[in-house]
Amino acid sequence: MKTKSIFGIAAIFACGLSAPAMAAWDSIGTVEVGRGQDRDSAYTQFAGGIDRLQFVAQNGDVNCRFIRALYVNGRTDTIFQGTLRRGDARTIDLPGQSQHIRRLDFACSGDRARQTVINIMVDVSTPSYRDEWRHSPAWSRWSAIFNWGPAQAPITGPSWTRVGVQTFGYNNTRDASFAGFAGRSVRQIGLRSDADAQCPRVWATFANGQKVNLANGTESLRAGQMANFDLPGNYRNLTAVSLTCRAVRNRDVAIQVYAR
Question: In terms of domains, do 10 and 135 share one?
């Protein structure tokens, strides 16, 4: 049984005053799955209530015999069965007493020889649930994910909408894919890091199936500065964004993502 934690960015956001408000999705970790037989994995790092869950398969499709939730009241529930297509987001609503999860159990297998992972996203919008996470002994770690604490202040204003944050390690280029944009009209993507970083690829996928690398292959991010990426031509309706980034100094780097 193996769990690998990463800290991520939100997958869904609203852009423009005419668009309806949407929840902010934050990645709290991943579970690894192998090819062939189901690989049992578990995730237990919950510090408070959540309003909704979302699962995103990365590196390939994932077939799940079940994803099961164990709640703090002792009840269990199978919350997903079936196939997670690569890059697609599967949202799980958690009504009533189901919003405090103790553990997620995965019986899933990938369709590729290389390792496949399931990204675990959460929507924590209820104020009392946010208070529970804040009072967790591990809040210093969670604050870097949810951006509710004194970490690098988000940019505010009518033009930019903060999507979320993704953490990348030193000297280890890693991919992170995020779906669920539902074809929102976006003019620019902005990346703002808390330390120097390199992002050779910033892929944007649009509703018409077109995929464009917005970076120049050697894109460097400077600490505290916003790097802007214009969306080309008539391509405005985003369905997914994928980042390939790494820290350039001997520390992790948190990259905040914005949309205009």
Answer: yes
Domain assignment of residue 38, given as a range = 3-146
Q: CA nearest 199: which of 165, 236, 168?
A: 168
Q: Domain of 205: which CATH number?
A: 2.60.120.510
Task: Report pLDDT digits (tens) over 12-23.
Answer: 333 332 333 345
Residue in 216, 200, 210 with CA at minimum distance from that of residue 239 = 210
User: pTM for the whole thing?
Assistant: 0.54
At residue 177, the pLDDT reads 60
At position 148, the amino acid (one-letter code) is: W
Q: Which residue has the tokens 């994803």?
A: 67
CA 91 to chain centre: 13
**Does an H or E element contain 60, and which?**
none
Q: What is the DSSP string of 190-234?
A: EEEESS-EEEEEEEEEETTS-EEE-S-SS-EE-BTPEEEEEPPTT
